[in-house]
TrEMBL record:
Organism: Bosea lathyri
Domain ATP-dependent DNA ligase family profile intervals: 145-278
Pfam families to which the protein is assigned, alphabetical: DNA_ligase_A_C, DNA_ligase_A_M
Keyword Hydrolase: no
EC supergroup of this enzyme: ligase
SUPFAM superfamilies recorded: DNA ligase/mRNA capping enzyme, catalytic domain, Nucleic acid-binding proteins
Protein's name according to its UniProt entry: DNA ligase (ATP)
Catalytic activity: ATP + (deoxyribonucleotide)n-3'-hydroxyl + 5'-phospho-(deoxyribonucleotide)m = (deoxyribonucleotide)n+m + AMP + diphosphate
Family: Belongs to the ATP-dependent DNA ligase family.
InterPro entries linked: ATP-dep_DNA_ligase, DNA_ligase_ATP-dep_C, DNA_ligase_ATP-dep_cent, LigD_ligase_dom, NA-bd_OB-fold
GO molecular function, one term: DNA ligase (ATP) activity
Gene Ontology terms: biological process: DNA recombination; DNA repair
Keywords: Ligase
Length: 346
């Protein structure tokens, strides 16, 4: 079993290294190399109400940023792919540069790009601002990559290995790098006290992962997310215009996925955006106006839009009829995140 890593002073504390197995040397041509996948569908965390119990579980901070797969292709060409498969290499130049400095011949690293606030916690709004907002063309040179898994290394596909082995190789690869590439630390603690500490520190929550599990795409339950405050991605289906509200934006009307293609209304959000953000959102939405709602709804003073703008919403709970309670706007996500729209259960 992999040695646990202790969170000593915060979510970005230093870790101690332990003896690790040797990496495969790609120059050993006698060895058969595994084909390198062009893209890997990510393993996703299943939402849970409380942390699991048992020595087979490891815990990490839940980072609030953009999920990325960083590829070092044979020949050391770097590609940084979003969860949806979009190439964002140019948007994270520092991460791309520092990955090259690791000196690997080929690798796929799974992680989260974040911008940290003054407390050392990830700030999604700051990351989005660094990238220039939705559809922005700026690069986030100050973003960090918190790496939490290693899927391929120097000609070897690692996905069938248990997480404990993949983590040991990841630690060996990254070491104590003082660059934009950081290790998402594994915490030596029980799940419940760690969740309590994370919530007291104002973090989004924690992730629990089975140490004995291989890497599988989708939400199979090997990874769990336990949140302090609920936050999910929804799609905008319309907005209420208000001449007295900031930027003329009274409320965004939101929908979640139901099944693979259907949408279901989950309520609205009217707080969390200031004058500048509200104006930018309304201007963007006005380019997607449609005459009728995408799902059957009867509302007055609503401008309906094509459901293709994903937004991150923080909320307290769900009502009995499936609506968001105490919702607050966090930020607008990219088209690349449409695959992350929250799916309601039947």
């Amino acid at each position: 079993m992999c040695a646990r890593r202790v969170l000593r002073s915060g979510p970005v504390a230093e870790i101690a290294r332990s003896p690790l197995p040797k990496r495969r040397d790609a120059r050993q041509r006698a060895l058969t190399l595994d084909p390198m996948p062009d893209r890997v569908e990510p393993c996703l965390a299943l939402l849970a109400s409380k942390p699991p119990v048992g020595d087979q579980w490891a815990y990490e901070v839940k980072w609030d940023g953009y999920r990325l797969a960083v590829h070092v292709d044979p020949g050391r060409r770097v590609r940084i792919l979003t969860r949806g498969g979009f190439d964002w290499t140019l948007r994270f130049p520092t991460i791309a540069h520092d990955i090259r400095e690791l000196g690997v011949d080929s690798a796929i690293i799974d992680g989260e790009a974040v911008v940290l606030d003054e407390r050392g916690a990830s700030d999604f709004g700051a990351l989005q601002q660094a990238l220039g907002g939705r559809g922005g063309k700026r690069s986030a040179a100050g973003a960090l990559l918190y790496a939490f898994d290693l899927l391929y290394l120097d000609g070897r596909d690692l996905r069938a290995l248990p997480l404990s082995e993949r983590r040991r190789l990841l630690i060996d690869l990254i070491g104590k790098q003082h660059s934009s590439i950081r290790l998402s630390e594994e915490v030596d603690a029980e799940g419940a006290p760690f969740l309590k500490l994370a919530c007291e520190m104002g973090l989004e929550g924690i992730i629990a992962k089975r140490l004995d599990a291989p890497y599988r795409a989708g939400r199979g339950g090997e990874w769990l997310k336990i949140k302090c405050v609920q936050s999910e991605t929804f799609v905008v289906i319309g907005y209420e215009f208000s001449a007295s509200a900031l930027g003329g934006l009274g409320r965004l009307l939101l929908a979640a996925r139901k099944g693979s293609t259907d949408l279901v209304y989950v309520g609205g959000v009217g707080t969390g955006f200031g004058q500048k953000a509200a104006t930018a959102i309304r201007k963007l939405l006005d380019g997607f106006i449609i005459p009728k709602p995408a799902i059957p709804l009867k509302r007055s003073n609503v401008r309906w839009v094509t459901p293709m703008i994903p937004v991150e919403i923080q909320f307290r709970a769900w009502t009995n009829d499936g609506k968001l309670r105490h919702a607050s706007y966090k930020g607008m996500r990219e088209d690349a995140d449409m695959a992350d729209i929250f799916v309601v259960s039947d």
